[in-house]
Write a structure and sequence with these properties.
By secondary structure, this protein is mainly alpha-helical. The chain is built from 14 helices and five strands. The protein is globular.
Length: about 400
């Protein structure tokens, strides 16, 4: 006789609709002896996801979006258990594991409901499409992209993180502007220092990549903001609108900077948008969706030009030796621009190998003047655009 778990999987995982899930959940709820095998099969589904290019944060983000928070917790429990078997994890994985939600208790609130939620999760995991890898799966030797060894966070990034945390926490726009500007200056100088050091030591370092979630609502504006932050920090961002993330390609110090700055600017922009919206409502306005969309579009576009200008200014100062952070080569370095150009070319080549087919999305214009005005003002305060971001070609793209 076919094992109960195979019967449940046949009913629930390889057919659409709730009827199959109910049948499978009923079979599992009636047989507690299948619990251990059910969990083991889930670990296997997670392991397959690694082979398709997915990482822990990617899986949980998609599960949360397409199912619910309970399913995200179930996925997190499987991920933690599966990754515990490896002696060493790829770079960035531990940070993702540390940010996972807690797994819910097993068989709660009852065996049937729990089994139904598990089977719904497994159905999604079974159908995950292959995506571009940004590193090897655990247990494999690195191939394709360069992967730096695990290391403690550089002191410069610790300083940048502290500045951005203060910018998010302050209630004074002028202070947030000064703090965020200083953070971007440090990022640009740190990137220049790393580039010059790599050139002087003939480093074999090559570009890598990471994925950053771009969540609804207003995901187009958020993708444009991330694209602007990436470009200003010598990276390339390619947005996968269907799966809700952008892949950022660049050298490791720049990837760290992009992730830090994008997250902070999104927090600052959301706070500013909420405050501006409250003022609009106090004046009797009710159309908040168009206001928010226009606000974030203006915020992203304005920040794009300001970030680019800040990076250009710091680069010019470093080349001339007139800034406060000329880097390890000493005041003024005529080799700086060729070094940066070579790194830009390496990033572009890596991005084009990863994404041989991309399209440029046409962004829907902002329709709310008040939202656009307030968003532009908020970008000026944050001190921090092109058409739309690049879209990933191939499976799952638009």
């Amino acid at each position: 006789m076919e094992p109960v778990i195979d019967q449940a999987f046949a009913a629930a995982l390889y057919s659409d609709g709730d009827a199959g899930l109910d049948t499978g959940a009923s079979l599992l709820a009636a047989d507690p002896t299948a619990d251990a095998e059910l969990f083991r099969r889930g670990e296997e589904f997670v392991r397959r996801a690694w082979g398709r290019g997915w990482q822990p944060a990617d899986v949980v983000r998609l599960v949360r979006r397409d199912l619910d928070e309970t399913a995200a917790g179930l996925a997190a429990g499987l991920i933690v258990s599966e990754t515990a078997r490896y002696e060493r994890l790829p770079p960035r994985w531990q940070g993702q594991l540390d940010g996972l939600p807690a797994a819910p208790p097993r068989n709660r609130p009852d065996r049937f409901s729990y089994a139904s939620a598990v089977l719904g999760l497994y159905r999604l995991l079974l159908r995950l499409p292959p995506i571009e890898p940004v590193g090897p799966p655990p247990g494999d030797s690195p191939h394709g992209l360069h992967l730096p060894p695990a290391h403690d966070e550089p002191r410069m990034l610790t300083r940048i993180r502290a500045l951005l945390a203060k910018a998010e926490a302050t209630g004074f726009p002028e202070e947030a502007e000064a703090l965020t500007t200083k953070a971007q200056e440090l990022m640009a100088r740190h990137s220049i220092d790393e580039a010059l050091l790599a050139a002087r030591t003939h480093s074999k370092e090559a570009p890598g990549a990471c994925r950053i979630g771009v969540d609804a609502p207003y995901e187009t504006a958020k993708a444009i903001l991330l694209d602007a932050v990436a470009a200003a920090n010598r990276c390339r961002a390619v947005w996968n609108s269907d799966l809700g993330f952008s892949t950022v390609v660049g050298f490791e110090p720049d990837l760290d900077a992009v992730e830090l700055l994008y997250t902070s600017l999104l927090v600052q922009g959301t706070v500013a948008m909420t405050s501006a919206e409250a003022g609009q409502r106090a004046g009797g306005r009710k159309r908040t969706k168009t206001f928010r969309q226009s606000f974030l579009m203006a915020y992203a576009q304005r920040l794009g030009s300001r970030l680019a200008a800040d990076t250009a200014r710091v680069t010019a100062e470093a080349e001339a030796g007139t800034g406060s952070g000329a880097g390890p080569a000493g005041p003024g370095d005529p080799a700086l621009l060729p070094v940066l150009a070579a790194r830009d070319m390496a990033v572009t080549d890596t991005a084009e190998r990863m994404f041989p087919e991309t399209t440029t999305t046409r962004v829907r214009g902002a329709t709310d003047l008040d939202g656009w005005t307030h968003g532009t003002a908020a970008a000026d305060r944050a001190r921090m655009g092109g058409n739309g971001p690049e879209l990933r070609g191939g499976r799952g793209s638009r």
